[in-house]
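anyone else get weird line breaks when pasting these?? whatever heres mine. first is seq + tokens for prot A
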Amino acid sequence: MAEYKTKLLIIGSGPAGYTAGIYAARAGMCPVLVSGFQKGGQLTITTDVENFPGFPEPINGGELMQRMHDQAVNVGVKIIDDHISEVDFSSRPFVLVSEGANSYKAESVIIATGASARWLGLPNEEKYRGFGVSGCATCDGFFYRNKDVAVVGGGNTAAEEALYLAGIAHRVTLIHRRDELRADKVLQERIKNNPKIAVEWDSVIDDILGRDTPKGVNEIRIKNLKTDKYKNIAVDGVFIAIGHKPNTDIFKNALALDDQGYIVTAAGSCRTSVAGVFAAGDVKDSVYRQAVTAAGSGCQAFLEAQRFLQEV
């Protein structure tokens, strides 16, 4: 068991966490960053990234996060491969304990634990993740220009992703387990009136089929829940849009969360319900969920933490 003391503790190692760390280290704050279970965050399971500024050629998501990690180390961020399991924000210094029984005491904390996409749980879903299976149309839709794709879900996210992909892909099949969408009425009307979108009602994906060389999806098998009949649909990509789960379980009794579990922050700010604790990236963002917006909020969280420490 080890004990760490720092002015600024950062929890999470995605774009938000690394950016906060880089800024804090350059400001001479000697930050400590606890990486968490998924070092590098969701981008580590992404293949080519083409929309992160500064990279004219596509870069693998894992490589992008490794570069952020290396930059953070180079400027002086102390990175510890550990996972925080308990927090006490009742008084400063804040006390956090890890699953490895390490103790962390910090004058301020930036939470950048992100959010995890909800998946269907199919074996081939994991096999083809990053090779035809995606949880983000904005991130990966470009790769399916003039191709056939499927979107799974019935809420606003699924409707928005289907409409977004309809502007890129040749054809979009929206698969929903009920006989009507849960999305806002205006989105439902747009889906209905878009000739490139077909809806498979009362249906679920039973399996995702593909090839190993080159690795990729080429078909899905769906099951109609009312008729119990199966049918195959040829697609090049499958976008799972059944929601995200913010990684906030350990903060339930320590911070204000919204009804979806995202950390509540002051408008236009990264300040949480506890003074000295800040949130950045997808852990507080249920709308944009992009690497570049997460990185931007990591910078914002650092600037607010720095101001807080200067004023106390």
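and prot B, same format (seq, then tokens)
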Amino acid sequence: MIRSKLLTTLMALALTGAGWAATPAQAQSGPLRIEITDGVIEPLPYAVPDFIAENGAANQYAANLARVVASDLSGSGLFREIPKNAYISNITSFDSTVQYADWKAINAEALITGAVRVEGNRLIVKFRLFDVFSGAPLGEGLQFAGTTDSWRRMAHKVADAAYARITGESGYFDSRVVYVAESGPKDKRLKRLAIMDYDGANVQYLTDASALVLAPRFSPTGDRVLYTSYETGFPRVYLLDVATVGRRILGDQAGTMSFAPRFSPDGNTVVYSLSSGGNTDIYSMSLATGQQRRLTSAPSIETAPSFSPDGRQIVFESDRSGTQQLYIMSASGGEARRISGGAGRYGTPVWSPRGDLIAFTKQNKGRFHIGVMRTNGSEERLLTSSFLDEGPTWSPNGRVIMFTRATSGASGAPALFSVDISGRNLKQVQTQGAASDPAWSPLLK
């Protein structure tokens, strides 16, 4: 089978660029590896007409679905939407024949069409993707169903499917972000946990503002959240059920402080920092039995642990060398090896879902950066630079990093930003007010 211009172009766009290489899952004509060394990437032009309303009740969703799909794809930085006023022909029926010449004339390389109907409170969305230059569909049509209240999620699913078919890697649009919503003046800032769609829609508050909360983290299934709270006056790790908002303290031991928790990949174990007697080490805890295990035993401060995707290793930060640096050890503890080697201080490491990179915060010469490096510490790249950038979290496909930025220097309210792992497409994430400490969920089920 001959590989289309669309697929070839988007395979290139989907890779990280600027000296990084990646391998798509599968091209139409077989496995393909493309290495990009040129720092310039031109987004692929596409068209997404309003979806077809197949009954009267669907009219209110047809245009909105297409707009969310377009926002998802264009927001990735890999795609560029062709405006509707440039269209020569329109889609009048989901099953109608596509006039490829008309779409080719306006330089569209991909065409996304869809239809929607409503049956009671049930929403059914169909979509098709076409390669304009080869004049053929790219894969089979798909159908998604949900409640009318979940119409935005149906649009995210369509965008994920289109993204995956074109790039050869999974999407990240049908996901959520848990974060700390902040309000009030800087010297009396109120903080509570909130959860939202990845693009800022459908905000729900999980805690009230009665106690300081920090560093929420999703479980691998996205149904639970770990976080640190000062509700008792000292930092304690809490486990919260997203659906019921029920919660419990983990390891509430007198005379200790626990913080910086994170789930294991199977969701059965939690790693966190525990401070006791003036010393801070990393511990693990079985959620089934509550049994704790000490993983480090150094006089230095060890914190911010993060599992590798296979659960065999943990990356963490420590000042055992005299400055804050990154180390990797076995998930069962033992000897650790340092992986950070550049100038400055490193912290808040988090392993990519792909397993190949570690994201981190770096402070050097009065500036803060979000960066990535290979798991052996090589090929360090700084993606951002600001007065204060910190706390990276990975998108489910390992393509995008979200983080906290102080938007106006020392007095500015924090905001959420995202950036591609190539360092491109830096943008602010829309939130209802000030926000910090984001944590990205896995793709929703």
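btw re prot B: The chain is about 10% helix and 40% strand. Residues 6-38 have pLDDT under 50 and may be disordered.
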